[in-house]
């Protein structure tokens, strides 16, 4: 199992819409994430700053690095681009985080 964490940034005033869209996540996107080996994915928010904190757990041999090539992923990014900081291809600006502590 691999676990990664990263941050993303919402544009001001978009928290409620971001949450609404994720509450209605497309089944095709959920299927693509699962097929890529992502079996546990949480996103937290610091509502004061709009910083999103995400954690993904991935199976050994996952194919998550191939997700950006999928049309469903590109469609989701375009759908979400008006709410958050994005790269030119509409993918969210992601800042990887390094684990400093772990207690099992």
Automatic annotation (TrEMBL):
Keywords from the UniProt entry:
Carbohydrate metabolism, Cytoplasm, Isomerase, Rhamnose metabolism
Question: Kind of enzyme, top EC level?
Answer: isomerase
Q: Which InterPro entries match?
A: Dimeric_a/b-barrel, L-rhamnose_mutarotase, Rham/fucose_mutarotase
User: What Enzyme Commission number(s) apply to this enzyme?
Assistant: 5.1.3.32
Give the Gene Ontology MF terms in alphabetical order.
L-rhamnose mutarotase activity
Q: Which GO terms describe its cellular component?
A: cytoplasm
Q: Does the keyword Heme apply?
A: no
* A single BP term in Gene Ontology: rhamnose catabolic process
Q: Point out the coiled-coil segments of this chain.
A: none
Q: Does the keyword Cytoplasm apply?
A: yes
**Record HAMAP family:** L_rham_rotase (MF_01663)
User: What name has this protein been given in UniProt?
Assistant: L-rhamnose mutarotase
State the organism's lineage: Bacteria, Pseudomonadati, Bacteroidota, Cytophagia, Cytophagales
């Amino acid at each position: 199992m691999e676990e990664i964490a990263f941050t993303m940034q919402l544009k001001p005033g978009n928290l409620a819409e971001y949450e609404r869209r994720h509450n209605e996540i497309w089944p095709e996107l959920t299927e693509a994430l699962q097929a890529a080996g992502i079996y546990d994915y949480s996103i937290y928010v610091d509502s004061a700053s709009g910083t999103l904190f995400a954690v993904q757990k991935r199976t050994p041999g996952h194919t998550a690095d191939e997700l950006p090539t999928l049309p469903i992923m590109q469609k989701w990014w375009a759908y979400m681009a008006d709410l958050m900081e994005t790269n030119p291809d509409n993918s969210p600006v992601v800042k990887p985080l390094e684990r400093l502590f772990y207690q099992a």
